[in-house]
Amino acid sequence: MTSWVPRLLPRNVRSLAASSENQRVEDGRRHQEAYGYFLPIQTRWQDNDQYGHVNNAVYYSYFDTIINHYLIRYCGLKTGLRTSPTVGFMVTNQCTFHTPVGFPQIPVAAFAVDKVGRSSVHYRLALFPPKPAGDLPAVEHRDFSDGFFFGHPRLAQFAALACTTGSAVHVFVNPATGKPTGLPEDFRPGLLRLVTQLPMPGTTLFSSWLFPPPSKPSAHPSQLPSSRHLLSFRREYDLSPRLSYKDTCDSTQGSQRSPRMITLSQNPQSYLQQFYQSETSC
């Protein structure tokens, strides 16, 4: 009788497997679909270093800008140390650089939430350069003040792959004691809105941030994703535990075909119904 002895894979094989998985995760982070909120960033002459592109240290300020912009604009963060019940301390910050950008380009920063804890928030970040069209992207003052969400037509002006990806962790503390404290309840809806699963290469996965939570519709209906920009179809999207959606439109910009609802696990919210009534073609 033959006896089998379990053996571990050789260390180099295990290392290759881990390396391959890490690469898949990093590749997923480079796609626009991995992010829910976007903010154009105006580069400055002083951002460039002697090599003619934005210095690596400056990217952290871009990411810091979009994080705090979203927290102030959509989560109600108060920035006054004496008036705010909580302040966020950055405990982890990381960047991976793929391709450079430089002044006077206007890239768009991207933001998503990986995890919301009791007192900490894990962020996913990226920077997408403008497409090499020769002209600067046509952004408006409102884009800099409000930002926009995934699906906005402005995203068509930016590259599909990020030039820089990153991550960060905020721990929120009591400013009087300096000790971690629970997140304010009014923070959570805005943060949970951007919690998404990371899409892997070869798949397209949209999560709950594609459509705002039913209890708090978007303040800007024009920023809801347009069916004209949900291309590469005939696949099913699991948007959230509440919604399952499949679009049969296999359009390009030139073809005309109406999107159709295929399956819904529950009745869609009213704003989603209105959205599909108003959007009649791809």
From TrEMBL:
It holds the Pfam family 4HBT. Keywords: Hydrolase. GO terms for molecular function: hydrolase activity. It comes from the Eukaryota. Belongs to the 4-hydroxybenzoyl-CoA thioesterase family. Signal peptide: none annotated. It comes from Sus scrofa (Pig). Residues 244-264 are annotated as: Disordered. The keyword Transferase does not apply. This is Thioesterase domain-containing protein. Residues 250-264 have a biased composition (Polar residues). SUPFAM superfamilies: Thioesterase/thiol ester dehydrase-isomerase (SSF54637). PANTHER family: 4-HYDROXYBENZOYL-COA THIOESTERASE FAMILY MEMBER, NOVEL THIOESTERASE SUPERFAMILY DOMAIN AND SAPOSIN A-TYPE DOMAIN CONTAINING PROTEIN (0610012H03RIK). Residues 51-128 form the Thioesterase domain.
